[in-house]
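Re: Re: token formats

Sure, here are both.
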Amino acid sequence: MWCGPEGEIKMQLCEIRPGEPVNLNTERLEEICNQLGYSGGETAICAAMEDLATMLHQAKTLWASNDFGALHATARQVALVADRIGMAGLAQVAGNVRQLSDGRDAAALAATIARMRRLGEQSLLAIWDRQDLRL
């Protein structure tokens, strides 16, 4: 907020877009493809990506409905799937959601779910951009 030339009060709004680097273990993706063959690896990675997208959406819905038990279970699954396909950062944040899912700190839980969803989306895009994956 500042004063204009005639003493009027001026306000400026700014948009905050939080972001952070994606921690993607590409060696894990290569390992999956080496174990299952390219086609099998691609299928497994795409299935995991679809599962993650669904679970990230569910997390928001579960939080909004105060279903903290189901949120805890969903965050656990997000962490397991993310870890399996090399998304270490997402797995860690999902673990944070699990810790906060007791519902005692609503603001921290809301912020951490938003971070999990944002990092999840960025991680999914990073894999999609890195691989020639087709659904």
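Second one below.
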Amino acid sequence: MNEIVVLAGADTDMLRKFAELDEHSPEVADRFERDLHEALELISRHPQIGFGHLYPPYRKWSLRGWNMAIFYQPSGSRCFIHAVLDMRQAPEALQAILQARTHP
């Protein structure tokens, strides 16, 4: 099992989405948190599971039941989570966010 390292941008993404959902329905927010945790656990166990060709250098794993995706990079025994984004955006907008979070 690989260590999951949630970077600041991804942490902000997750907190923002949780707060948005919690404002309307705490039950839905709790379901989002549970589904997100399950997806991160799956990535931890199978770091190559996400698609790697659409948004290099990131792998993308869609969050089942949500219009969200996790963008991450496996590295050694760690998986760095860079973003958790709503996929109902223009591809250019997604690329701009991911590019801003790319470390040299």
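The chain has a mean pLDDT of 95. The longest strand covers residues 78-86.
- S.
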